[in-house]
Amino acid sequence: MLDLEKGETALNVTLLTKIPFGHKFAVCDIKKGDSVIKYGSAIGEATEDIKAGGHIDTHNLKTTLTYVPKYSYEREETAHTEKPKERYFFGYERKNKTVGIRNEIFIVPTVGCVNNTAEIIAKKANKLYGDLCDGIFAFSHPYGCSQLSEDAKNTASFLAAVCRHPNAGGVLLVGLGCENNNISVMEKHLDGADKTRIRFLVTQNEEDEIEAALDKIKELSLLTAKDKRTKQPLSKLTVGMKCGGSDAFSGITANPLCGFVTDYFVSLGGSVILTEVPEMFGAETQLLKRCVNEDVFRGAVSLINDFKRYFMEHNEPIYENPSPGNKEGGITTLEEKSLGCIEKGGKADVTDVLPLYGRCKKSGLSLLYGPGNDIVSSANLAAAGANIILFTTGRGTPLGTFVPTVKISSNSPLAKRKSNWIDFDAGGILTNSDFLSYRDKLIDLIIKIANGEEKTKNEQNGYRDIAIFKNGITL
After folding, report:
1. How far apart are CA 46 and CA 32, in angstroms?
2. For a tag site, which of 91, 93, 188, 278 has the least CB within 10 Å?
């Protein structure tokens, strides 16, 4: 796959200029002010006359997103496919009946002041006890003190979600002692967690905090060593959907492929989570029509409009997206990006709307409040209960969060060039459109990863980042 040269014929149109890899050209004459159509929907407005074969990009296409519209509930029945035969994986069933696909020990700092302490503990503990579990990992972050109201609550809620995640067989919460988000505060947020698998450490109270921590991790390691994988229906997995470093092929190959996976899991009675609210702008009506009832519809409308108001309250335009890399990859407007982004949700019914750090509890497709930022949204998905994240990309990124993060390339040149990042190449769909075959191969890979037979590239490379959504003042 290469650039198209001036004078070439494509789709029965003679190109008037060179068309870079992944970029758009007009297949008919478009008048200034007319809508430009892609994915069967408008992706913006032409700012000048565009001749057939002309390059369409930022110089002649603009977004039309400038306001908060009103929505009405018009339920559109989705086509439900026949339920496929149940498949299984081997995972760790927890006391709260959730199922993990890893049996790791998480070291969670309550405050950024003890980040390095947590990292030292993890390094030493892995040498001593790493063979008794699937690994011991510390998750650094800059928060936990000098935060007010909503931000302070968000930090505690997020860290508590990490602590209760089923991929953790044990958790060590490490505090400093004088922070706002201290151990006592965190204990109040740990509802639903298995307290027998959590240990607490206040470093200011210990003469040697490292040795004290290692003693506690030894206890947890001896517990995880007794855990066994058991056969579980595939519907017990919760799958998070994410895209980052997208290009123009993301909405044509990798994202629709994830949509086929979404429909497959939902038809089994499983749960899938879709987030990146700003990347729903311009395509939200397609999701709103699939809400199963008016309560879910109202929740979804609030999800969209609240995030638009968040932009407006900070005097920022709601259309300040796509990123420079997206544009270089051929995505011009937010509508174009959004229409491609929501393809990851397939055609499934929207059954629930989750607040920031809310827990996914229903089968079907849930919409999760949160930004599009790759680290924040990936961590949000995991905090909501996703065991595994399908992360599509057209430009490439090594990022992963605290659960296995499957990188799916939208084009084959990327998969070949960055084989150390990419787990699955969806680029072949460009030539054969065989979504079902690729879906089945991707599900096979998901099962192998869930079984622990394979590790994702982010796991192999040690990329396990978290980020907490911040909105307010830092003291």
Report:
1. 5
2. 188
* In this structure, CATH architecture of domain 9-62: Roll (2.30)
CATH node for 104-226: 3.40.50
- Tell me the per-residue pLDDT of 62-112, one tens digit each, with 9 for 90 and over: 988 766 778 888 888 766 667 888 899 999 999 989 999 999 999 999 999
Write out the E strands in 136-180: 136-138, 168-175
CB 110 within 8 A of CB 397: no
* 285 contacts 71 by C-beta, under 8 angstroms: yes
Buried b (16+ CB within 10 A) or exposed e, 231-251: ebebbbbbbbbbbbbbbbbbb
d(CA 280, CA 292): 18
Structure tokens at 69: 């519209």
> What is the pLDDT, as a whole number, of residue 79?
66
CA-wise closest residue to 180 among 144, 225, 133: 144
Nearest Cα residue to 356 out of 381, 373, 374? 381
pLDDT band for 184, please (50, 70, 90 cuts): very high
Is the C-alpha dihedral spanning 375, 376, 382, 388 positive or negative?
Answer: negative
Q: Which tokens is 86 given?
A: 């149940």
Rg (CA), the chain: 23
For 229-271, how does the pLDDT look when each residue is reduced to its tens digit (9 = 90+)?
999 999 999 999 999 988 889 999 999 999 999 999 999 999 9
Which residue's structure tokens are 């544009």?
A: 327
- Residue 303 scores a pLDDT above 90: yes
The C-alpha atoms of residue 140 and residue 112 are separated, in whole angstroms, by 7
Beta-carbon contacts of 307 under 8 Å, excluding residues fewer than 6 positions away, are 277, 278, 369, 371
Tokens at residue 413, please?
Answer: 């040149």
- CB of 115 closer than 8 Å to CB of 151: no
Residue-level pLDDT at 325: 78
Burial class (CB in 10 A: 0-12, 13-18, 19+), 42: middle
Share of the chain above pLDDT 70, in %: 98
